[in-house]
C-alpha cells in the first residue's frame, strides 16, 4: 500500500532534562523578553535545589512550584485546571505584549518593521538553542492551533484520500479537516470513544478497523483535553507498521547531532527498513519541483554514471535585497566551488546544493551514512564530500532554471545576511581573517584588473614605458 501515516505526538523530555532546560532560559533570553532577570535567577536557584531529586519528589515539592507559580497572575478565587485548551501567560509576557503594543501604536511602520522586526531572527536563534535544534527548524506561531492548521492544510492529499480522527479531538483541528473534506473531497472519518478507557487494545483496534487502502493520515490527540484520556500512541504506531503504513515518529535529538541531519537520518533509516529504495531525494520544504523533476534527475544520473546528482534551485529574486545580493551570493558560491572542478571525477572539489540532492542509497551507505556527518551545519557539501572522497564515486552539480525553484523569501538585508552567515560564513569556519582574505582576493580579481587597465592607459598616454604597457596588458587580460 502506498499509504502514509502522519502522527502528531507531543514528546516531552524527562523531568530532569526539562528542569535543566528551564534553568537555561535564564540566560537564553534578554531581560526584556520572556523572563526578567530577577525571576530568572529565582528559577535558576530553584532548579539547582531540586536537580538531584527524582521526578516524583520534584512533583510534590510545593516550595519549588511556588516559585513557578509566582510568574503568573491567576486569580486566587478560582482553581484553574484547564491548561490544555487555553493557558495563562506569565506576567512578564503580558507586560511585554502590552509594552510592545503601545510602542507599535506610537509609529506602526517605524517600530513594527524597523525595530521589533529586527528581533525576530535573534529570537528564533535563541529558541533553537534552547530546543537543541537548527534555527531553520523553528517556526514561530501564535499558538498550537495555528501551528497544526499550517500542517493540516499543507499536507498533500487528493480527492478520495482518507483521514482518520476522533470526535473528541480538538475542535479547531476537526474544523480544519472538515474544511478540506468540503473543499477537496477527502474523506474524514471520526471515531467515537466512550472515555475513560483503560484497555489500550480497545483504542488501537478502533483505529485499526477504520484503516483502508486509501488511508493517508491518522490524526491522534496524545492527551484528550476534554477528559484527560492518554492515547496509546506507541501502540498505534506499532499497529500501523504491521499494516505497512509509513510512520514517521520524530525521535529526540541525540547529543552531537544537528537537527536537519538527524531528521534526514530518521527518514533514510525508515525507508531502508520498509522499501529499500535505490535512490534517495534530499530536499527542503520550500523547494518546488516540477512534475518531471525527479524523473529527469534520475535519468541524468544514470546517463552520466554519477552517484550524486544535485541541482542548485533557482533562487527567488523579487525584493530589493534579493536582487541586490542573491546573484552575488550565487557567484561567490561558484567561485569557491567551480562547477568544472566539482563535476570532474579526479578533482577533490566536491559540491552540492541542499535544496535538491539525488543520491544513490548504496553509495550513501558505503560512505558511512548520515552518522559520518552528524554534526555538519553545511549538510549539502558534507554529503557531496562523503560520496566523492569517502566512497570515491563521481558527483554532479548543475544550476536549475525551471524544474527546481526556491520559494524562500529574503525581504530585507538582515535575512540575506543571516543566510550568508549560516552557509558561506560557516563554510569559512566562521573565521574573520579567512573572510577578509577571501574578500581581498575577490577585490584583486575583479577590481584589480580595472585599476591596472586604467593605470596602463594613463601610463602609456604619459609615456611611462614598459611598466605601463605591462599594466595595460594585465588589465586587459583580466578584464
Topology:
Layout: E1 4-6, H1 15-28, H2 37-50, H3 55-59, H4 62-69, H5 91-106, H6 108-115, H7 120-131, H8 144-154, E2 162-166, H9 171-184, E3 187-191, H10 200-210, E4 215-218, H11 233-242, E5 246-248, H12 259-274, E6 279-283, E7 287-289, H13 293-304, E8 308-312, H14 320-336, H15 339-342, E9 356-360, H16 361-366, H17 379-390, E10 395-399, E11 404-406, H18 413-427, H19 432-462, H20 466-478
Helix pairs in contact: 1-2, 1-7, 5-6, 8-9, 10-11, 14-18, 19-20
Describe, in plain words, how this protein is organized in 3D.
52% of the residues lie in helices and 10% in strands. It is globular and about 100 Å long. Mean pLDDT is 80; it is low at 1-16 and 22-35. The protein has a 4-stranded mixed β-sheet with strand order 6-9-8-10, with helices on both faces. Strands 3-2-4 form a 3-stranded parallel β-sheet, sandwiched between helices. It has 20 helices and 11 strands. The chain has 479 residues and is an alpha/beta fold.
Amino acid at each position: 500500500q502506498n499509504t502514509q501515516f502522519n502522527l502528531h505526538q507531543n514528546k516531552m523530555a524527562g523531568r530532569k532534562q526539562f528542569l535543566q532546560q528551564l534553568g537555561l532560559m535564564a540566560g537564553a533570553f534578554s531581560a526584556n523578553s520572556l523572563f526578567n532577570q530577577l525571576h530568572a535567577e529565582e528559577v535558576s536557584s530553584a532548579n539547582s535545589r531540586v536537580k538531584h531529586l527524582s521526578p516524583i519528589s520534584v512533583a510534590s515539592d510545593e516550595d519549588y512550584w511556588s516559585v513557578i507559580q509566582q510568574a503568573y497572575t491567576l486569580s486566587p478565587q478560582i482553581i484553574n485546571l484547564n491548561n490544555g485548551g487555553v493557558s495563562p501567560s506569565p506576567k512578564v509576557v503580558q507586560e511585554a505584549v502590552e509594552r510592545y503594543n503601545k510602542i507599535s501604536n506610537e509609529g506602526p511602520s517605524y517600530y513594527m518593521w524597523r525595530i521589533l522586526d529586527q528581533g525576530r531572527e535573534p529570537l528564533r536563534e535563541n529558541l533553537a538553542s534552547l530546543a537543541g535544534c537548527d534555527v531553520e527548524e523553528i517556526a514561530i506561531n501564535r499558538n498550537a492551533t495555528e501551528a497544526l492548521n499550517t500542517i493540516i492544510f499543507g499536507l498533500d492529499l487528493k480527492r478520495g484520500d482518507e483521514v482518520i480522527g476522533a470526535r473528541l479531538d480538538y475542535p479547531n483541528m476537526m474544523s480544519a479537516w472538515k474544511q478540506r473534506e468540503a473543499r477537496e473531497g477527502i474523506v474524514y472519518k471520526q471515531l467515537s470513544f466512550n472515555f475513560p478507557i483503560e484497555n489500550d487494545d480497545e483504542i488501537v483496534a478502533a483505529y485499526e478497523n477504520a484503516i483502508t487502502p486509501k488511508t493517508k493520515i491518522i490524526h491522534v490527540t496524545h492527551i484528550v483535553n476534554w477528559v484527560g484520556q492518554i492515547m496509546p500512541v506507541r501502540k498505534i504506531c506499532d499497529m500501523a507498521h504491521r499494516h505497512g503504513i509509513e510512520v514517521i515518529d520524530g525521535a529526540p535529538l541525540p547529543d552531537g547531532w544537528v537537527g536537519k541531519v538527524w531528521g534526514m537520518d530518521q527518514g533514510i533509516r525508515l525507508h531502508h527498513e520498509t522499501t529499500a529504495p535505490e535512490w534517495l531525494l534530499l530536499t527542503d520544504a520550500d523547494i518546488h519541483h516540477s512534475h518531471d523533476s525527479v524523473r529527469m534527475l534520475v535519468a541524468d544520473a544514470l546517463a552520466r554514471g554519477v552517484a550524486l546528482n544535485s541541482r542548485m534551485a533557482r533562487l527567488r529574486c523579487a525584493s530589493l535585497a534579493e536582487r541586490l545580493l542573491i546573484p552575488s551570493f550565487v557567484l561567490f558560491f561558484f567561485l569557491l566551488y567551480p562547477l568544472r572542478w566539482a563535476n570532474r571525477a579526479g578533482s577533490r572539489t566536491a559540491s552540492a546544493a541542499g535544496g535538491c540532492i539525488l543520491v544513490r542509497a548504496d553509495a550513501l551507505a558505503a560512505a558511512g551514512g548520515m552518522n559520518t556527518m552528524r554534526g555538519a551545519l553545511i549538510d549539502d557539501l558534507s554529503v557531496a564530500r562523503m560520496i566523492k572522497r569517502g566512497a570515491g564515486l563521481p558527483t554532479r552539480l548543475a544550476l536549475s532554471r525551471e524544474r527546481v525553484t526556491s520559494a524562500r523569501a529574503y525581504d530585507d538585508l538582515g535575512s540575506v545576511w543571516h543566510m550568508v552567515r549560516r552557509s558561506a560564513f560557516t563554510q569559512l569556519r566562521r573565521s574573520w581573517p579567512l573572510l577578509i582574505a577571501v574578500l581581498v582576493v575577490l577585490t584583486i580579481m575583479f577590481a584589480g584588473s580595472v585599476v591596472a587597465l586604467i593605470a596602463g592607459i594613463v601610463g602609456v598616454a604619459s609615456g611611462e614605458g614598459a611598466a605601463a604597457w605591462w599594466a595595460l596588458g594585465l588589465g586587459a587580460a583580466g578584464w
